[in-house]
């Protein structure tokens, strides 16, 4: 495990990733190339329904600095500059977008063996402010985050969470949506590579008196093939088959359907990611 409690956004992330990552509903094809100078070029094409879109992303890494530039088919441009250790144990991230200048953001992250802090400010005339703090150790951590709108002087969000992490398991509790949602998750890893695992998540929304219970897991058939499944109490069943066709290149097939309405057409997604 890494030093320090990590960021607040890391609380519950392992369980969330297992239940959401790679579950696709569209067709995606991406190709990545890398140069010895530290430049990475990735082209991506996505087809959803009868509509196709794509983007080109370029990343340059040099020592403690990385720069990312992405351009999509609708002429949207986003640029991210990340610089580590301007102040020791810190990371500074600047994000700019065109033509939507209002979504630009400057974020500073600070890491300590027993705490982490983040502060982000929007790059516009009425900048929103976001803060988070996490206290603890790699084994036990608790934290909170909040968003503040400078124009109205009101809190736009506030969330609190707690997590307990062991080498083979992680449990988290998050109170979010301004206290309206309670989410409890637990993930248990069955192997050292953490490719085979089981996960459970319960979400309670107080305003609607609604509960959602989801169970899932992943199973490594061999070194090249991974299968993932998930099912919730509303009858939604999802499955993923991922295979490494050549080194670092993955083909992913995903499907999701409603077990309570089998006459509905299932959702299918396919992704092919080629890397040298």
From TrEMBL:
Molecular function, one GO term: porin activity
CDD domains registered for this protein in UniProt: Porin3_VDAC
Compartment(s): Membrane
Residues in coiled coil: none
Keywords: Ion transport, Membrane, Porin, Transmembrane, Transmembrane beta strand, Transport
GO CC term, one of those recorded: mitochondrial outer membrane
InterPro entries given in the database record: Porin_dom_sf, Porin_Euk, Porin_Euk/Tom40
Physiological role: Forms a channel through the cell membrane that allows diffusion of small hydrophilic molecules. The channel adopts an open conformation at low or zero membrane potential and a closed conformation at potentials above 30-40 mV. The open state has a weak anion selectivity whereas the closed state is cation-selective.
Family of the protein in this entry: Belongs to the eukaryotic mitochondrial porin (TC 1.B.8.1) family.
PANTHER family (alphabetical): MITOCHONDRIAL OUTER MEMBRANE PROTEIN PORIN 5-RELATED, VOLTAGE-DEPENDENT ANION-SELECTIVE CHANNEL
Name this protein carries in UniProt: Voltage-dependent anion-selective channel protein
Gene that this sequence comes from: LOC105177816
């Amino acid at each position: 495990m890494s030093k320090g409690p990590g960021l607040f956004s890391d609380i519950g992330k392992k369980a969330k990733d297992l239940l959401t990552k790679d579950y696709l509903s569209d067709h995606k094809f991406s190709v990545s190339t890398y140069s010895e100078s530290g430049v990475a070029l990735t082209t991506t094409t996505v087809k959803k329904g009868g509509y196709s879109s794509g983007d080109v992303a370029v990343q340059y890494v040099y020592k403690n600095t990385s720069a990312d530039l992405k351009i999509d088919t609708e002429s949207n441009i986003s640029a991210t500059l990340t610089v580590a250790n301007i102040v020791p144990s810190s990371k500074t991230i600047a994000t700019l977008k065109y033509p939507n200048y209002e979504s630009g953001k400057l974020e500073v992250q600070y890491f300590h063996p027993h705490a982490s802090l983040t502060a982000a400010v929007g790059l516009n005339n009425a900048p929103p402010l976001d803060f988070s703090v996490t206290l603890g150790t790699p084994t036990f951590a608790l934290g909170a985050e909040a968003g503040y709108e400078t124009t109205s002087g009101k809190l736009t969000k506030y969330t609190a969470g707690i997590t307990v992490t062991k080498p083979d398991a992680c449990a988290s509790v998050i109170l979010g949506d301004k206290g309206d949602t309670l989410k409890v998750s637990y993930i248990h890893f069955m192997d050292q590579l953490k490719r085979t695992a089981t996960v459970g998540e319960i979400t309670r929304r107080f305003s609607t008196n609604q509960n959602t219970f989801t169970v899932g897991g992943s199973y490594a058939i061999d070194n090249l093939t991974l299968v993932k499944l998930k099912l919730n109490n509303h009858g939604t069943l999802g499955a993923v088959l991922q295979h490494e066709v050549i080194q670092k290149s993955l083909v992913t097939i995903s499907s999701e359907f409603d077990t309570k309405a089998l006459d509905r057409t299932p959702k299918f997604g396919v992704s092919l990611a080629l890397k040298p």
